[in-house]
Specification:
There is one protein chain. The chain has twelve helices and 22 strands. The C terminus is likely disordered. Helix 6 packs antiparallel against helix 8. The radius of gyration is 23 Å and the shape is globular. Helices cover 33% and strands 30% of the residues. It has two domains: 198 residues, Nucleotidyltransferase, domain 5 (2-Layer Sandwich); 151 residues, ATPase, nucleotide binding domain (Nucleotidyltransferase, domain 5). The chain is of the alpha+beta class and 433 residues long.
Length: 433
Amino acid sequence: MGRDSDILVGLDLGTSKITVTVAELAEDNPGEAQIIGIGQAPSRGMLKGKIVNLEQAISSVSDAIADAESMLSGIKISRAVVAYSCPEARCYHVKGMISLGRAARQITREDLERVIETALSNIKLEPNWAVIHTLPIKYAIDDIGGIDSPLDMTGMKLEVELTAITVPVTIGQNVVNCVRKAGVKVTGLILKPLAEALGALSPDERAIGASLISIGGGTTSFTVFYEGRLMHASELAVGGDHVSNDISLLLKIPITYAEKMKKELSAAPDETPSGIITLDIRGHKQEIDKAEAADIAAARLEQLFADNIAPGIEALENKGISTEIVMNGGVMLTPGIKALAESHLKRDIRIGTPVLGSEMPEGRNDCRYCAAAGIIVYLTERRKNPFAYVEPPMTVFKFDVSKDEGIKKPVRKSDSKVKTLLRWGKDVMKELF
């Protein structure tokens, strides 16, 4: 094994499971990494992707870390970049422009920071909100647009168009606190929709244009890449647990039994084998008609596609953006769901599997593990181009903790929001990598 600095660790906080992905940087190419282990544990203390019971969530994270470490030889996981859900997140498109002077000159790193800062200043952040992701879409130099990377190019005026995603700070702070209490330092945060898309879509698909819809245990995300750039990312607090809840409520059975039954049903009711299931619920025998349960599950899934997913695709097309549709998440393992999705979206779809799936162990490389792979993709792409994903320093999402006394010190109030966001030079790169 390489040094600790050669190890990348991603931790995916999901409603149904916690996944830890460990990768090792290639010795001859530090921009590439090989997955060497994946650990997981059932998710407890999480609801709709959020922490609702801190102690249970800490225990689940600890179990997933222990499972990952059991697959590795002599590696102790001490730090990780964490993917988490935040349905409250907001996505913005903003532009910024700066003058480079009266005479043309080469564009520096400081110029890129300054034009990004100018664009971000157009976002009016509410109290306790922060920008978690800043992704440049395109630059223009002296009104000549379509420039991917203007660094070291020459001009008098620099413009940028970018996508920015904002989140409530406290949700990220709770994530950091949970993982830290499990004995792991959080060196970065990434929103689940972005991690899922990076893990499921190849660079070529992102360049051509692709939309990733991920239906997980508690949330559904919608992420759009067009011409290689992130155009949209959002998340709804609607997922597979809605199916379980409906079955539990309408058939009057405990949620744990409904969850197990759901996995035996098809999204096409006529494809579910008929029959009666006899449940022993605390000594009481209860008979359940599988066909009735299948009808309940199908109705909820149809509503999800009709009310929550199809309108997003339609809105995208109304803007003139046509993309390939890729779907992943645990719910996409439901038999018959691909045909159901295609009937509502009125187009062919592909079930997405991790782009790094060949490196992932059997059973942990299907459509449920795209976010786990996506964190590693995100980290390696950031190493190649730090300006591809401009992130805030971790001090935005946590308190400084005194090693000796455990005293919490808040972020300095003198820092402006934009200045705090852009203090990601040497310190952030050192912390992330």
